[in-house]
Design brief:
Length: 181
């Protein structure tokens, strides 16, 4: 007789720690492998300082989902471009170590071999639906793995800081702007 799901023991604390350690090692290896193999070019995209061509499809797909409700539907393309420029400018001011970590996060999310298993988005980011992106964000936000929760938090903070640093974002939240001196 096959054991049912109820008969099998739940994941123990030790098992969870082993799984988390394995997942961390996997992500580190894939990120390092992508960097060393040239899968992720280190050259910035044309007209940008830090963001690479490989980062742009992912960011152009995720930014509209994260800005949903904060931007009028007709303004999403303009807001996405403005957010990308602000994000690029903000990333250019990071320490080399933090920039490296951010590039590793983007590499893991854009590399096909890791994108599907880690995000549940098996198609390219350009072809991913808004619902699929929302589901990915929800899974990462509520994950039992601290590494994925940190990834979600990093993505959310990067995009929100980039958007709300822009004057056109201030009216929506009622911020009159910095005082004139």
């Amino acid at each position: 007789m096959n054991p049912s799901l109820i008969d099998t023991p739940t994941l123990s604390r030790r098992g969870l720690l082993k799984f988390s350690l394995g997942a961390s090692a996997f992500l580190t290896t894939v990120g390092l492998g992508a960097s060393l193999s040239g899968c992720s070019p280190s050259q910035p995209a044309n007209g940008l300082t830090v963001l690479r061509d490989s980062d742009l499809p992912f960011l152009r797909s995720i930014i509209p989902v994260l800005l949903d409700g904060a931007v009028a539907v007709g303004q999403i393309p303009t807001a996405t471009d403005a957010t990308l420029r602000s994000l690029d400018s903000g990333l250019a001011h990071l320490s080399p170590a933090m920039l490296k970590l951010t590039h590793q996060l983007f590499d893991v999310l854009t590399l096909g071999i890791t994108r599907g298993p880690l995000t549940g988005v098996w198609v390219s980011w350009e072809n991913a639906s808004s619902d699929a992106i929302r589901q990915f964000l929800g899974r990462w936000e509520n994950s039992s793995l601290d590494l994925l929760r940190q990834g979600h938090s990093s993505l959310l903070q990067l995009v929100m800081m980039a958007w709300y640093s822009r004057p056109e974002a201030w009216a929506h939240c009622g911020y009159p702007g910095p005082p004139t001196v």
